[in-house]
Design a protein that fits this description.
CATH superfamily of the largest domain: Tetratricopeptide repeat domain
Largest sheet: none
Shape: flat
Helix content: over 70%
Order of helices and strands: HHHHHHH
Strand content: under 5%
Number of strands: 0
CATH topology of the largest domain: Serine Threonine Protein Phosphatase 5, Tetratricopeptide repeat
Oligomer: single chain
Number of helices: 7
Length: 154
């Protein structure tokens, strides 16, 4: 029975390594296509990586950022903005994503100027975007533990 467990364990590890290596080679191919200015192929490969990430619940801000760059170079500004915004949702602290999103928005033809919002909502959104959701979760847990220590000391 132990041999079966070890064999099954090794089989699972082998399968997962094969999937990650295939995703890595797809990312390398997409990057090479982008550097070679073959933006359509790069878009196809990055879209494939994004769909694989969605299927495995492993979305990547880097994939969406690169996909946005490929769409922008292919003169598809709307799709570029969409992917920059997706990347920004996953990594709100990344300055490159913010810069490219701002730049892509200046290239739109209709240039819709959003209505101003209340200053407190801007302030709260600024604080929320300082860290990713995972970082905020860690901060919340640490604050809760500090609260428990203070409560115990009281």
């Amino acid at each position: 029975m132990d041999v079966f467990k070890y064999t099954f364990f090794l089989w699972i590890i082998g399968c997962s390594l094969g999937l990650s290596l295939r995703a890595q080679t797809t990312a390398e191919q997409a990057s090479q296509a982008y550097r070679g200015q073959d933006y359509k192929k790069s878009i196809e490969l990055y879209e494939q990586l994004a769909s694989q990430g969605l299927a495995q619940d492993k979305e990547s801000a880097e994939i969406y950022y690169n996909l946005g760059n490929a769409y922008f170079r292919n003169n598809q500004t709307g799709k570029a903005i969409l992917n920059y915004e997706r990347a920004l949702l996953l990594d709100p602290g990344d300055r490159d994503i913010r810069h490219n999103l701002r730049f892509a928005r200046t290239r739109t033809e209709d240039r819709i100027i959003p209505a101003g919002s209340f200053f407190l909502s801007n302030w709260i959104a600024g604080i929320q975007n300082l860290f990713s959701s995972n970082t905020w979760a860690v901060i919340g847990i640490v604050c809760f533990l500090v609260f428990l220590v203070c409560l115990g000391a009281f």
